[in-house]
Amino acid sequence: MDMGVWEWAHLCTWIPDLLNRQQTCCNPYKYVSCCPLFAHIHAMTMELLLLCITLIGAVCCRETFYGDQVLRIRASNEDQLKKLQFLKTLEHLKLDFWLRPSNPEIPVDIRVPFTSLQAVKVYLESRGIEYSIMIKDVQALLDEERAEIEFSRKLERNSKSFNLATYHTLDELTADYGKDSAITSLLNNLDIFLLVVTNPDGYVFTHTNNRLWRKTRSKTAGSNCIGVDPNRNWNAGFGGPGASNNPCSESYHGPRAESEVEVKSVVNFIKGHGNIKAFISIHSYSQLLMFPYGYKCTNIDDYSELDAVAKSAASALTSVYGTAYKVGPICTVIYQASGGSIDWSYDYGIKYSFAFELRDTGYHGFLLPANQIIPTAEETWLALKTIFEHVQDNPY
């Protein structure tokens, strides 16, 4: 039986509501397959319906996180830690581990989809595992962020004096040349290469589809899941502990070391240059300044020197706003993680290899407010300058 005008109109108003309440998706067939009502629709009506959904999908393909919460969980012992590690294997819950379970001293942060909240909380409470709500509604924070971006864009269009909230440009690295003796000396003796975005396709995807996307956008043969964790794809203990062979995992290491063009391009640049003395990787979050190793838990030959440099850099950083950083090898400070960039750079012969995890320690996690961009940059710059000066004064 053909659908009447009212039924068609009613269905077309229902579809956007469905798209708004679930995570919006550009694949129109996702909703066709899960709704039994669609099985009885006349063929011509079905074509119109698919067109309707396709048009909606083209406009509304941003993934949303309504009702999702970020839970901060603290395991009190190894037994509770194992229970959290088991929770990580339950793929049907679609949990997003922002900080994964590694040892009882480090909290575990998990973004829990609204549909899994009750199950996860019952699991934790029934096992006596302590947790708190770090972010009550992920989408609410994202909406605030987007509103601020739109407001800034409006100001930029309407005000001749708007200057992106005084965000600094790379030109400022050279602005004090000839005025500041320390900067002048650094630029006379060092070439500083800045790769602002190492995952450009993933970065664009965070703006168009999924604000919380972290992987690359490559396809994996035999899987519908997209992307590789670029910081598990380096040829340093590749495929070892702390990396996953599951293409759907956020820590998927890829089909082989350096399979990702984003990683291979940096490797080729470093090998082609031939005289890189320091390699610094900057991430978020947790307020950490780390050095190798991550893929194994043994101290490097240069442990004492790199530990001292990292502590000096962290002290310089703290002097600005009092932001405290934890310092040490990756495997000690957070957890064992294979295929990381600074492990590769150190093994390649770049002694001064460091990784930052910037602000904060959990109030916002990956959703750091824009008003913390400048303070974070100011304090981090002093840490970087401390490292640069040590590299300059200690050639090898």
Automatic annotation (TrEMBL):
Keywords: Carboxypeptidase, Disulfide bond, Hydrolase, Metal-binding, Metalloprotease, Protease, Secreted, Signal, Zinc. It is found in: Secreted. Residues 83-391 form the Peptidase M14 domain. One of its GO terms (biological process) is proteolysis. GO terms for cellular component: extracellular space. Its cofactor is Zn(2+). The active site is at 357 (proton donor/acceptor). Its main location: secreted. GO terms for molecular function: metallocarboxypeptidase activity; zinc ion binding. Coiled coil: none annotated. The keyword rRNA-binding does not apply. Belongs to the peptidase M14 family. This is Carboxypeptidase A2-like isoform X2. The gene is LOC117366847.
